[in-house]
């Protein structure tokens, strides 16, 4: 699933193509996404101008004026791309034509994505703090760990109602960077742990964005380019391989139904 760095990369790559352009036509081929695309989506979007592109959590948000935002969530396998899709490409659900000859398309084989017009952040669900924003800090992690003492620290990082967008790849990597085992209960975190973890989350996410995200499956940015961060992974999906820090074999366990990877020597 595309996580925060991948969605941020899509925002940054799509913005130069679309800002200042007017929507000329919208074709909805398939409405049945995670939530159906509304019947009036095309008519409401057509004629509007895209003023800005931003990210909130794992949503791409395109400001189309009058307090309205065109929100796109990539789900598990979605791609939001600039250009015309190949004629035989399956699972292309939405096509958008902008002035200046620019075209966009949304492809989502598993149909877990979303596309809607939003007037309020409440339309996007219950969203927590942005991990790269000013409100994210060691003090916040300490407070959350006191309120959720029984859950694992990895579960805490991945709860989008508390902290948005971190996702499985980057939770694993940040915990390794901080030297904290993913399964450790929040009750056992110290203030020093939360300082290291807050720094690690920011470091890993910023480094992943600089590398245009991770292309482990079919992720591509809006221009069709793959990410590079998968070449820098220390623990994620490296079970049995040597830790890049100490050469101890990486272990795998399941936490919250997700594959979880850690070094038994570097992480305590």
Percent of sequence in beta strands: 15-25%
Strand order of the largest sheet: 1-6-7-5
- The CATH architecture category of the largest domain equals Orthogonal Bundle
Give the overall form.
elongated
Please write the string of helix (H) and strand (E) elements: HEHEEEEEEEHHHHEE
Low-confidence stretches: none
Find the count of extended strands (DSSP E, 2+ residues): 10
How would you name the oligomeric state of the polypeptide chains in this document?
Answer: single chain
Q: Treating each run of at least 4 consecutive H or I residues as one helix, how many helices?
A: 6
CATH class of the largest domain: Mainly Alpha
- In the CATH scheme, what's the topology name of the largest domain? Helicase, Ruva Protein, domain 3
Please, how many domains? 2
- The mean pLDDT is 96
- Percent range of helical residues: 25-40%
Task: Report the major sheet.
Answer: 4 strands, antiparallel
Q: What gyration radius follows from the Cα positions, in whole Å?
A: 20 Å
Question: Structural class from helices and strands?
Answer: alpha+beta
Gap from first CA to last CA: 28 Å
Q: How would you describe this structure to a colleague?
A:
With 268 residues, the chain is α+β, with helices and mostly antiparallel strands. The protein is built from 6 helices and 10 strands, in the order H-E-H-E-E-E-E-E-E-E-H-H-H-H-E-E. The chain has helices at 4-18, 41-45, 138-147, 153-157, 167-178, 191-210, and strands at residues 23-28, 52-56, 59-63, 69-73, 79-82, 92-98, 103-107, 114-118, 251-255, 258-262. The strands form 3 sheets. A 4-stranded antiparallel beta sheet has the order 1-6-7-5. The protein has a 4-stranded antiparallel beta sheet with strand order 2-3-4-8. The protein has a two-stranded antiparallel sheet with strand order 9-10. Helix 3 (138-147) packs across helix 6 (191-210) and helix 5 (167-178) crosses helix 6 (191-210).
């Amino acid at each position: 699933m595309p996580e925060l760095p991948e969605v941020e990369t899509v925002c940054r790559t799509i913005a130069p193509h679309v800002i200042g352009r007017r929507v000329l036509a919208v074709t909805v081929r398939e409405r049945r996404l995670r939530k159906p695309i509304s019947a009036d989506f095309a008519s409401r979007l057509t004629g509007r101008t895209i003023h800005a592109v931003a990210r909130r959590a794992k949503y791409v948000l395109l400001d189309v004026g009058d307090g309205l935002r065109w929100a796109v969530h990539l789900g598990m396998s979605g791609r939001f791309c600039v250009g015309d899709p190949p004629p035989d490409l399956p699972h292309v659900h939405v096509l958008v034509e902008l002035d200046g000859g620019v075209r966009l398309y949304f492809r989502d084989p598993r149909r877990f994505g979303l596309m809607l017009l939003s007037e309020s952040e409440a339309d996007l669900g219950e969203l927590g703090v942005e991990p790269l924003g000013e409100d994210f800090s060691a003090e916040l992690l300490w407070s959350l760990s006191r309120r959720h003492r029984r859950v694992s620290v990895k579960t805490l990082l991945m709860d989008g109602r508390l902290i948005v967008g971190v996702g499985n790849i980057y939770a694993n990597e940040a915990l390794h960077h901080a030297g904290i085992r993913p399964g450790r209960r929040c009750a056992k975190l110290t203030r020093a742990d939360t300082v290291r973890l807050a720094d690690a989350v920011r470091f890993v996410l910023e480094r992943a964005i600089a590398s245009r995200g991770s292309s482990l499956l079919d992720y591509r940015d809006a221009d069709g380019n793959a990410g590079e961060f998968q070449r820098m992974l220390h623990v994620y999906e490296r079970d049995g391989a040597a830790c890049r820090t100490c050469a101890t074999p990486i272990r795998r366990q399941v936490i919250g139904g997700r594959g979880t990877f850690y070094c038994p020597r570097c992480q305590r």
